[in-house]
Amino acid sequence: MGPKAPMGDAFQHILSDYLPDRPRANPTDDQAALVYLLIRERQLWAGKLRVELDFFLSGYWVELMDGYEATEERYRKLEQKQEDELMALLEKEGAVGKEKLLPAMAEAREQQLSGLTVQERRAFITHFTGCQPCSGHHNSIYSKEQCQNGLVRALNYADDQVLRTLGYQHHALHLPDVRLSASA
């Protein structure tokens, strides 16, 4: 059902008929095709799929760009609280109790995260709809600079998730410079 499929144009119109909020000019895509299958063949597919509501799986880049720092601060506070609780428990239980505490700490973290709305969580994927950096034919409502700056911030934000475990982070999300993390 993809745009390059032999019947891509036909599916484009079929999908638009079944999904009235979807612009007719949009090419076919896997997400729309999946929704179409769920509508048309609900009995066949519904029991085999799980719609995930607990994670922020895919966020639209325009909505995410200005919130990375606030999201990271929320997580930093949650993680600091969790680390403080772990240290207090370790002092009480001793190093031997650490292995026993980890599952409880993981459950506590999930409870803390459950207090956040989906949009307050880290997005698993930043979806750069409209930028099309490979083709260069981006949506005219975004400038080339907006898309490029957004991509740099998103990539540096993702880098920081890994770098943080090593004690580093970017000086600022729009810069390539890496420094020792404040919490290191």
From TrEMBL:
Protein name (database record): Uncharacterized protein
Main location: Golgi
UniProt keyword Glycosyltransferase, yes or no: yes
Record's keyword terms, sorted: Glycosyltransferase, Golgi apparatus, Signal-anchor, Transferase, Transmembrane
Transmembrane segments: none
Mode of membrane association: Single-pass type II membrane protein
A Pfam family hit: Glyco_transf_34
UniProt-annotated location(s): Golgi apparatus membrane
GO CC annotation terms, alphabetical: endosome; Golgi membrane; trans-Golgi network
Record GO terms (molecular function): galactosyltransferase activity
